[in-house]
Amino acid sequence: MKRAWWQFGKREDDLSAEIESHIAMAIAERVARGESVDSATAAARRQFGNREQVRATSRDMWGWVWLEQLMLDFRYAGRKLRQAPGFAAVAALSLAIGIGGTVTMYAVIDAADIRGLPYPNADQLVVVEQTATVRQRADGPQVVRASPAPPATTAIWLGSTHTFTAMSRVGLGELHWPHDDETETLDVASIGPEFFAILGATPLFGRVIAPSDTNSDAPGVIALSYSFWRERFGADRHIVGRQIQLDTAETPSPTSHELYTVIGVMPDQIDYPAGMHGWIADRSGSHAWATVLARLPDGKTALAATSELQAITKDLPAPPGSTTPPGVRLTGLRKFVHSKWSGRDDVETIDSPEGRFARLAIVLFVLVIAMINVGNLLLARSASRGHEIAVRTALGASRKRLAQQLIIEGGCLAIIGGSIGVALAKWAIKLSGTFGALRGNGIVPALDMRVLAFALALTAIVALGTGFIPVLALVRTSGAESPRATAGRARGKLQGALLAAQVAAALTLLTGAGILGKELLRLQKQGFGFDPKNVVWFPNLQRPAGMKSVEFRESVLFGLQRVAGVSSVSEYELFGNEGFYPLGDPSKAGKTIFDHQYVAIAPGFIKNLRIPVLAGRDFTDADYASAAPVALVSSSVAERFWPGQNPLGQQVIVPPPMRRKGDTLKVDPLTVTVVGVTGNPRLGRVLGPAPMTLMRPTSDKPGFGASYLVRTVGDPDAALPVLRHALNALQGAPLDRAMYGTAQRMGIDRQLTEQRVTTRALVAFAAIALLLAALGIHGLVAYSVAQRTREIGIRMALGAEARSVLLLVTRRGLSLAAIGIVLGVAGAFALSQAIRSMLYGTSPTDPVVFAGSAILLGTVVLVASYLPARRATRVDPMIALRVD
Amino acid sequence: MAKKPVHQSRIEMLQGTLDLLVLQTLRWGPQHGYGIARMIQANSQQALQVETGSLYPALHRLEKKKFIAADWEQSENNQRVRVYRLTAAGKKQLAAEQSWWAKLSVAIASLAKPPVGESDQ
Questions:
Q1: Strand runs (DSSP E) across A66-204, as ranges?
Q2: Which candidate among A168, A302, A305, B27 keeps its CA 20 to 30 Å from the CA of A61?
Q3: What percent of chain A is predicted at pLDDT more than 90?
Q4: B103-107: long-range contacts at Cβ-Cβ below 8 A with a sequence spacing of 24 or more?
């Protein structure tokens, strides 16, 4: 029958007519029997009863009965779950962790790999940078590094008008905004008038930067970002025209501050460069180094545009530190936004698309385990509810209704789990946003509509999947003579398979967590060879024109030392060379570029970094003054070069550092004498093997790779603004964020954080899997004991020993667990291959961890079986025989 | 909360029985609601009083499941009445319900007796 809303009225009329005819017939009959019309009418109506109720019941049935049943089922499920709060909590929580983890990982992938840029024809947008050929680490190979370009270069690019549809400079800077008794530092981008047109963005209201705003004498104007406007100006619609005072320096001076007029507010989705508070005009005559944002014309390739720009760029002078003339690199905006730091050290390996998808696979695996666990728990409960189900069947409940009921119970758990999971994900997403590798790549995961939709879909799938497992067992009871027995058998098989899978999964995760945990312990124990607490690292400071490098170093060391909150300052420079070797044995020179680390250190370096001196002494002032041919070596060097001998007084040949190509041949190798042995400092790389380190007193010619290390007394973040201010003064120019990176803590803690988080997550998953496996075994054995109470009673009455009774009730659980353990070891081998890349000193198949995990799991299984089994041995035969 | 489920479960329990009775009655030929009520009453020696509040919902439910079909007709005393008749599916359902009823009677009868132990599983 078609049921459509337009038929509803007709059906109502039909119903009324039907009722009226019924009453009319009843009256007619009564009248025929001799009653008066009036009394017959009254009696017939009274007998019919409440007409409205008849109508309401019919109406319900027409349209809403399914909804009504659904509501009833939900209410019933809620009541059932409340009756077993422990079960509900464990089930919902394990689903929550699975869902939360999956949603978090999806949010990261969504932000990094799926979410498009909110600009029309965004694939035509490119960022132009200049490239230089440099060494990023002195011991590293020559690499091509892209960076913002000086004004002269960008001016030439902007002149090549036929290359792009439009171009705009984009420089990054900071402005200080004193307001309400505090000074806030604003991140601003200085842009050309074409900038927003290139993006295809129009302001929410007000206007954007106009060509006249970029004249060198134009008054300052600023377009605000949506979030800044909302948070700091309370979304004031009358903001346009307001003037705010912004300073280039933190402490305002008459020359540094300027009034900026707010000209407009940009919409929320305009977020390039990421996280800007506002955009200011790039006024001509500015000295800012900048990248160029451009839009390719239809049909033009990035390659063609690159070669056009290359042709006009190659005659410009080489960038500082570069061995080649400047080159040009075009990067798609999306790639640029999400991978600008990927060339740096270990960041690339920590955060890559492959890594992200691998981690999504791991959390999905965990989610599937959680689903199996919950399904299994539901199944076990459905066993104890066999009675209830039999009664309901007898009372006419269809199998469909029962299945619906079971799915809804699973669904309730999934919905609770999903809600908690989303809350967990919200927290975890916020946390992941602070990870260096993600933040550095401009990947800002957020719990937005699409991620929420994903969470919703995931929860629905989990709900169906979880509820489906007990239904599987139910469906197999295909109307046979003894439905209960069949159900029991089907359930038994399925439950057995799930239990073995559960044990296997628990062991897999346990072993994986054990291996990662061992690696983390090793890393923590290994340490860094120095104390990184409160150390801030300033690489690549810019020497003011005309100042000698030695003078600059002196002034920085001296200047920073006087900054309040600074405990000590030092300088070092890493060099690449062919690898030093003990006198007379060149075969011990460095074999890989990372193996040897040759460092020139300024006075105080060892003390500043608190590198332990294991034997001999630190350099003295006399060593520096006389440029003595002395060296400190790390203990790794001493062990490799002179095993079992006293390293002090030994001599090492140091080939000259390679500062520029071909330079090495002009200087003779240096012979130095070891005066001290230190720990193994890891200056940059934390996770790999300890580098062989040789330290020399710094020369009088610091090179491009000099880095300054500042140890602060308290929290280094608090000292950063002051330090930056001091450095700006010392350099005579502001630190260019895009070029050199702002002052940052040595990347060490971050490298460890991600390792730590992954390990902890895996440990948590393993603990939950273990708990659930234990509950599963416990439930199975307890059920078996309950089922066989009579049998046990008889056996004991006949003289069976406690041991044979124990064996009887635990045999099935233990043999299933044994199958699970075999499968789990295989699973652990597979998992260990997946996490191989995260291990640096621990074997992925560490036998101690493998054996230990299996033993731990085995013990848990035994205890979980023994507890309920013990009950069986205490069965009093007399009572047992009276059961039922 | 307490009231509604009780009420609902009573309807649910009656439902199967009343359905069976309606189908059984229609086996004798098409009939309108009033007639069905009267026939059940008469055939059960007045033991079963059919509530109209249950009868019409039951008729509409059976109609929805296509076990019975309905048409408007003129009655003998020239009244428009809605007449129900058994469909082919209804006949099959009747047979199924009869065997279900037989089983249920046995089950209830055995439950009403004290249990005589339980076979080992």
A1: 125-135, 142-147, 166-179, 182-191
A2: B27
A3: 11
A4: B104/A394, B107/A394
The β-bridge relationship of strands B68-74 and A596-601 is: unpaired
Q: Show contacts of A364-369: CB within 8 Å, 24+ apart.
A: A364/A102, A366/A97, A366/A98, A366/A101, A366/A102, A366/A509, A366/A765, A366/A769, A367/A95, A367/A98, A367/A99, A367/A101, A367/A102, A367/A458, A367/A462, A368/A98, A369/A98, A369/A502, A369/A505, A369/A509, A369/A765, A369/A769
Residue B117 has its nearest CB partner, among A47, A485, A884, at A884
As a whole number of angstroms, the distance between CA A811 and CA A791 comes to 15
Centre a 10 Å sphere on the Cβ of residue A629 and count the other Cβ atoms it contains: 15
Q: Determine the pLDDT at residue A261.
A: 93
Helix (H, G, I), strand (E, B) or coil at A83: helix
Q: How far apart are CA A466 and CA A409, in angstroms?
A: 9
pLDDT of residue A54: 73
Highest mean pLDDT among A115-129, A262-276, A851-865: A851-865
Residue A17's φ and ψ, nearest 5 degrees, are: -60, -40
Facing residues of B69 across strands? B85
Amino acid symbol at A515: I
Name the 3-class secondary structure at A567.
strand
Q: What is the ipTM, given to two decimal places?
A: 0.73
Overall average pLDDT of the A301-326 stretch? 82
Q: Closest CB to B82: pick one of A18, A72, A394.
A: A18
Closest CA to A774 of A83, A94, A78, A102: A94
Q: Which residues of A touch B104 (CB under 8 A)?
A: 394
Residue A662, chain B, CB below 8 Å: the answer is no
Alpha helices in A351-385 (DSSP H): 353-384
| Predicted pLDDT at A106 | 84
Please identify which residue in the block is written with the tokens 């599987």.
A472
pLDDT of residue A870: 83
| Interval A182-187 mean pLDDT | 78
Give the integer Cα–Cα distance in Å for A327 and A310: 6
User: How far is Cα A232 from Cα A205, in angstroms, rounded to an integer?
Assistant: 17
> B23 to each of A366, A701, A792, B33, B49, how far by Cα in Å?
53, 107, 51, 12, 17
- Domain spans, chain B: 3-110
Ramachandran quadrant class, A649 (left: phi over 0; alpha: psi -120 to 50; beta: rest): left
Q: Which of A157-171, A409-423, A702-716 has the lowest mean pLDDT?
A: A702-716
What local confidence, expressed as pLDDT, does residue A221 receive?
93
What dihedral angle (degrees, nearest 10) is formed by the CA atoms of A593, A599, A600, A602? 150
Burial of A313 (0-12, 13-18, 19+ CB in 10 A): buried
Mean of pLDDT over chain A: 78
pLDDT at B2: 38
Nearest-neighbour CA in chain B from A74: distance (Å): 13
The percentage of chain B sitting over the pLDDT mark of 70, rounded to a whole number, equals 74
| CA of B30 vs chain A CAs: smallest distance (Å) | 15
Could you tell me the pLDDT band of residue A264, with boundaries at 50, 70 and 90?
Answer: very high
Mutation site, B59, B60, B71, interface A, largest A CB count within 10 A: B60
- Residue A246, φ and ψ in degrees, nearest 5: -125, 140
Q: How far apart are CA B80 and CA A14, in angstroms?
A: 11
**Per-residue pLDDT at A195:** 93
Give the integer Cα–Cα distance in Å for A174 and A179.
16
More confident: A487 or A63: A63
pLDDT digits (tens, 9 = 90+) for A821-877: 999 999 899 888 777 766 777 888 899 999 999 999 999 988 988 888 887 777 777
